[in-house]
Specification:
Elements: H1 20-28, H2 33-51, H3 61-70, E1 76-77, E2 94-97, E3 100-102, H4 108-120, H5 126-146, H6 152-165, H7 168-174, H8 177-201, H9 208-226, H10 237-241, H11 248-274, H12 281-290, H13 309-318, H14 358-361, H15 368-374, H16 379-396, H17 415-428, H18 433-455
Antiparallel strand pairs: 1-3, 2-3
Amino acid sequence: MPLAVVRAAVPGPPPLEAGPGAWLESRLQAIGPGWVALALFLLGLVVYLGSNPGRADHYDHFVWQAQAFLQGRSEITYPVMQGPHQNYYFQDVLPVADGLAQIPFPPLPAVVLLPFVAVWGLDTSGSTVAAVLGAINVALCWWVLLGVSARRSAALLGTLFYGFGTVAWYAAMLGSTWFLAHVVASTCLFVAIGLAIRADAGVVGRRVRHTLGQQFAAGVAFGLAATARLTTLLGAPFFLFVGGGGTWLRRVAAAGIGALLPVLLLLGYNLATTGELFHPAYDYLYEVEYRPRPELFHPAWAAEDPRYIPQNLGIMLGSLPLAPVWDDPACAGAPVGIGTLFAPDCPPLQPDPIGMSLLLTSPAYLLAIPVLVRDLRYRLVAGAALAVLAIALADLMHFSQGWVQFGYRFSNDFAPFATLLVTLGIARLRAGWLALALVGASILVNAWGVVWGVTLGW
C-alpha cells in the first residue's frame, strides 16, 4: 500500500465495559480537557519543585552563558574562584583564553534564561525554570496524547507515565545544566509532535494548504529542539510519516524547511564562535575527562563511535542498582529494613551513578511492545518507532552516557516519541489493571530515584 494512503491513526480498541479504565474514562469525559491540563501542570509544578526544595544549582552553565550573551560575547567568565558565584569546578568547559571558556552545549537553554538573567543576574535559578518548564511539558504531553487516542483514560495514564514514571521527573526536579537542556528540548518536541499529529488529522479537502502551514510550524519547533539537544534531530523520520500536506513529500518539505531554519542558526552560531560547524569542545573533553577512566575510555575510538554501542547498551538496558558490599567492614552488622532504605551507609539498594536499565526504572515502556508488533503498518507507530530507534542509536554511540544520574538520562531525548507508543499500548489494554500496575511501578521507582538523587547531592 502506498505510504501516502496508509492511515496515521491506529484504530481504537473495543469499547470499555468495566474495570478501572471504564471508571476513569467516565469521569474524564465529564471534565473539559483544558481543566485536566491545568491540573496536570499544577501537579507537575508541586511535585517537581517539592522534590528538590534546596535547589543548589551547583552546575548552572547556562546561567553563565546567558550572562555572557547579555554582555555581548559567547565565552563565559571562567574559572571564577571567589565571590558569591563561583564556577572553577565546572565540568564540560573548553578554556579558550585567560579568564574565558566556552561551553559545548547548544545555546537554546541559555536563550530561554536570558530574561531571567537580565533581571536577577547570576542569582537566577536555572533549576526552578527547569521545574516550571517540566510542569508545562506534562500539560503538553496530555495535549499531544489526546490526538493519539480518543480514550482519555489512556491519554491520562500516558501523561502520568511520562511526567512521573520516566527520568523526565529527575531532569525537571534537578534542572542542572545537562538536565535543563533535556527539559527545554522536550518542550519543543512536544509542540512539534502535537502540531504534526493535528495537521495530519486535518488533511481533508481544502484544509490541505492550511495543514502545510501547521507542518512547517511543527518543523520549526522540531528544529528548535535540536538547538537544545542536538541528537533530537534524529527524530526526523516521525515527520516523514506524520503531518499535514496529504503526501509524504509535502510532509517532508514543509517540516524540513521549518526545521532547517533553527538548525542553520545553530551551525552559524558554532561557526561564528568556534570557527567550526560542529563544536570542537567534545573532542577536548573526551581526552581530558575520560582518559582517566580506562573502563570507559578507548583512545583508538572517536568521541562518537559505533563501537561504544555494546558498552552503552548494557547501561541502557542491563545496568542494575548497587547493592551493599557486605564483606566491607563498614557494612558489617549494618541493619536492613525500611528504615535503612535511604540510609547513606550500606542501604539495601542504591542507584548506580553511571545509569540504570530503562526496563527497571520505567517498566511501562514494555507496553509499547505489542503496539510495535501489531500496529507497525500505521504511520504514527512507524514514525515514532523510527524516531526512537534513530535517536537511541546516536546516543548509544556517544562516549559518555551521562554522569552522575538516576536511570538513563539520554532517554529524555526520545521519551516524547516513545510515550506515544506506550499510550497506544495502554489503550490496547483498555487502561486496565496491567497498564495501571506498570505505570504505578514506574512512578514508584522514579520516586525512589529522585529521593536518592537529592539525598546523595547528585
